[in-house]
Every structure is written in structure tokens, then in C-alpha cells.
Amino acid sequence: MHIPSTLSSARKFLSSHLTKASSTVETCVVIDATIGNGHDTLFLAEQVQPNGKVYGFDIQNDAITATRSRLQAANLLPIVELYRLSHDRFDEVLPKVHLGHIQAVMFNLGYLPHGDPSIITQPSTTIAALSKMTHWLASGGIITLALYTGHPGGQEEAASVIKWATSLPAKSFQVMWQQILNRNHAPSLVVIEKK
Ligand SMILES: C[S@@+](CC[C@H](N)C(=O)[O-])C[C@H]1O[C@@H](n2cnc3c(N)ncnc32)[C@H](O)[C@@H]1O
């Protein structure tokens, strides 16, 4: 077995949880908090289809367009709703019926690959989104965060997320931080599981 990359590791956690959740709940509802080019949205849609639902958020039009066509090509657009909206405002559009029933949330922080590198996720909105999402998460549900430190602002954001995640009460959440040690600016992965 090889040590997986940050992204494959996140996907392994999500896939394992969603396979189990799909067998116990009728509609597996998940959130892609940073859709970007839609690779993760497609991954999530594949995990929860045919009965599940994916809500995706990004602040850039290009991300919405790229993700919509990726999902359309895979015939999975019907189970996906995309919003050009900052992820900390997800609760303005998500039906309240999903409160406490979100099975997974995926964050892939930083900037849109091949896009404008100055448009990046910001600690204040990332933490605001996370704080609300912990309430919307189902018992047993997980949040994964891929943290990048190679771009300006990345280190500060990673530090804020780690500080916030460290402060979650251990009686309600299990929190893990995973990092490759022998690479400069290696991305790292935070996984939060709600007990
Ligand atoms: C690293 S990319 C995501 C990659 C993506 N998951 C994929 O599979 O291609 C980060 C994305 O976060 C978006 N973003 C930045 N701030 C955001 C915010 N406040 N709410 C939602 N998305 C945001 C950026 O526009 C960018 O597209």
C-alpha cells in the first residue's frame, strides 16, 4: 500500500463513510463547500447517486460553469444543486429539513486551479462556514478539509482551521490532522467526525 495524497486520503474517508451512510439513510445529503473545477463535486455525486443530493458552493462564475458541464457530461446534474454563494451563507439556501442530517462536507481550500490565484478562500468565511456546518452535520457525519500553504495567505488559513478544529469538544467530535512531513508546503488534511 502507498501513502495516499491529501486528496485521495480525503476521498477514502468520505467514500468509506458514504458507503455506510447510503445503506442506512434514504437520501444521503452532502456539501461541496469549494466546487472549483468540479472534480470533487463529481466524486461526491458518484458516491451518493442515485438517491442522494449534493449542494455545491463557490464564489466564482467560472467554477459554476465548469462544474455544471462536468456533472452534465456524467449525467449526474439532476442530483446536484450549485450556488454562486460564499460557503458561510450555505444556510440561506439549504432546506431546513437537512439540519442535523448532512452526511459529509468537503472543503478544498485555496484558489481555483488555472483561475485567478488572488481569489482564495479566507479564514474568516471558512471558519464561519465550519462553525455552522458542525450543527448541520449528522451524527457520524464527517467534514474533510484539504489545507494548502504554498500560496500567500495559505499558512494563515491553515493555522486558523487547525486552531479552530483543535478547540472542538472531544465529547462531541473526533478530529484528525494528517500531513506528509518530508515535503515543503505539503498540503495537509483535517478530518472532523461528529460523534
Ligand atoms: C482549490 S479550489 C477547489 C477545487 C475543487 N474542489 C475541484 O475539485 O476542482 C478552491 C475554490 O474555492 C473557491 N472559494 C473561495 N472562497 C470561497 C467562499 N467563500 N465560498 C465558496 N467557495 C470559495 C474558489 O473560488 C476556488 O474555486
Automatic annotation (TrEMBL):
UniProt keyword Nucleotide-binding present: no
Q: One GO MF term, please?
A: methyltransferase activity
- Which keywords annotate this record? Methyltransferase, Transferase
Determine the domain of life of the protein's source. Bacteria
| Pfam families cross-referenced by the UniProt entry | rRNA_methylase (PF06962)
Q: Which InterPro entries match?
A: MnmM_MeTrfase, SAM-dependent_MTases_sf
Q: What GO biological process terms does the UniProt entry carry, in alphabetical order?
A: methylation
Q: Which PANTHER family match?
A: S-ADENOSYL-L-METHIONINE-DEPENDENT METHYLTRANSFERASES SUPERFAMILY PROTEIN (PTHR35276), TRNA (MNM(5)S(2)U34)-METHYLTRANSFERASE, CHLOROPLASTIC (PTHR35276:SF1)
Q: What is this protein called?
A: 16S rRNA (Cytosine(1402)-N(4))-methyltransferase
List the source organism: Thermoflavimicrobium daqui
